[in-house]
Amino acid sequence: MDLVVTYDIGQEFGSNTIPICKFPTHALVHRDSALAKLNVVSLKSLVDHPLILLDLPETRVYLLGLFDNVSRRPRIGLRTHFYETVRSAVSNGLGVSILNIRPTPETIPDNPNLLRLPLKEKLRQPTLFAADPYGAQKPAAVTAFIKELHSYFVELGPSVFAVTQDTDTDDLLYPVPKL
Q1: Per-residue DSSP letters for 29-67?
Q2: Which end of the chain has less neighbouring CB within 10 Å, N or C?
């Protein structure tokens, strides 16, 4: 393994990690849902709707664990390993979902039936990071990739890759990595 790009919600990767940006958790709802009339939603309001769960091992534990803050977990309406299936199921009115990253409109635009809403609760924001086994001795290609990855998210800006109720999103991007 030369490089891993992942969230900080599962496996530990030691001290050779470079944080890139944070992704606040948000709700994905159908535009005709009663929830779509709100500017922000609470986890408690989502509990009464079937949850379309992005069912990846560490993601599942993280997402369902968020509901422990409201002492009740939602009924799972659908489990899937695929982000696109989550979006399709919500778009077809089968339930709601909780996600972190918003795909860019240029790569995978949301269907007009989808609405992304920030959560009312202040939750831990998973950090996207790059990890490598090299430490200070990174090969040039690894260093270049990490710098390019960071630049990509800086150029996109938090208003494109994240859904948040805060107007001040400067804290979502980490400073330029010193490599």
Answers
A1: EETTSGGGG-SSB-HHHHTTS-EEEE--HHHHHHHHHHG
A2: N
Do residues 53 and 97 share a domain? yes
Domain membership flag for residue 56 = yes
Chain segment 67-121, per-residue pLDDT in tens: 988 878 999 999 999 999 999 999 999 999 999 999 888 888 899 999 999 999 9
Number of domains present in the structure of the chain: 2
In the sheet that 4-7 helps form, which strands lie side by side, from edge to edge?
4-7, 127-131, 17-22
Pairing of strands 51-54, 76-80: parallel
Confidence of residue 154 (pLDDT cuts 50, 70, 90): very high
Q: Could you tell me the two tokens for 171?
A: 């804290």
Asked whether residue 32 falls in the same domain as residue 111, the answer is yes
Range of the domain at 10: 4-22+128-172
Side chain identity at residue 108, one-letter code: I
Over residues 17-28, the mean pLDDT reads 95
Question: Contact 20/98 with Cβ under 8 angstroms?
Answer: no
DSSP states along 115-167: EEEEBSS----PEEEEE-S-GGG--HHHHHHHHHHHHHHHHH-HHHH---S-S
How many Å apart are CA 17 and CA 135, to the nearest integer? 9
